[in-house]
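Board notes (copied after class):
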Amino acid sequence: MRLVFFTHPQFMKSQSMPRFASLLSTGMQKLGHDVELWYPKPFFYRIPAPGFIKKWLGYIDQYVVFPLNVKQKIRKEPVDSLFVFTDQALGPWVPLVKHRPHAIHCHDFLAQRSALGEIPENPTSWTGKLYQKFIYKGYIQGENFISVSQKTQEDLHRFLNGKKIRSSVVVYNGLNQDFKIHEVIESRNTLSTHAKRDLHAGYILHVGGNQWYKNRIGVIKIYEAWRKAYPANALPLVLVGANPSASIQEVFAASPFKKDILFLTGLSDHEVQLAYSGAQVFLFPSLAEGFGWPIAEAMACGCPVITTDAAPMSEVSGDAGGLIPLYTTQTTASCASILEQLVHLPKEKRTALIEKGFAQIKKFDTNSMLRDLEHIYKQQIANDASKK
């Protein structure tokens, strides 16, 4: 099977989507398929320019230069090549191959929902709204869609608005690393070194960036509520990921527990696994997600999870996590109460919850995901051949 994967340009410094594309391409190569990655190369983007202009130079490379190159390359492709878009945000390129076998992977529609005013917490500029409309007008011309969760598929169907398509399936993401449980003492030793703080008694963990939907401010507020309601508790809060944004830094600086709130950046993939394994609880009160990788990662490392009782977070955690209401200032106390319950779970109940997590993550096995996608890709090529 000949597979051409479209992915984001490396010069735009996207991380998660190129990793996903690499996972797919490497996996399909190991299954014996002929694979090639197509993505824009920097041409105009290499011109020295201020940041705002640089961004638009990148758009020229993506939406003017790259399509011209694709039109030339397509002519040399076998008629049964399958063109796979690794993200629906690559929608502007879909019309280039809409009459050829193709598939579009859908991760989340948060940007589009924001542009439509559905998420007031994340207002979109007028240029952002135009960009999302540009993306939408592209991917809506596709016929075959693969969503990472039931929630993403529901959003997709709503935005397709009754448009007739050929296929729409859900395939859960597979973990893109070999996440596994590590010794607690080893894990806490490593984190203590990074934090320059003794973490051997344990800690509350959060892993994520500064995006609004990751709700880092909510993480801090829930932690504060927990410390105030249960003053005997003194476990620190460790936030692994990017340096805090200005708004998060402001909340941190005003916290009465700021000496116990630690931001760790620059951890290796292995060290992130150790962070999960050494944590008492993983706190992940996201407001929205496309999938929610960290939930599965934490469970794979033997860490009990607390996450939002809303799809797709609850879809990923199943009954293996503690579920809290969607974070607002009114729900902070109830979130803190559930955090207290999981922090002090009796040993046998904690062990049972961890075992449930191990069972749940079998749904997110990378090899199973790749085999499922291989079957779907082959089916889409066969369906296209029968149409002609």
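Comment from the instructor: The chain has two domains: 2-174+366-387, 184-363. The mean pLDDT is 92.
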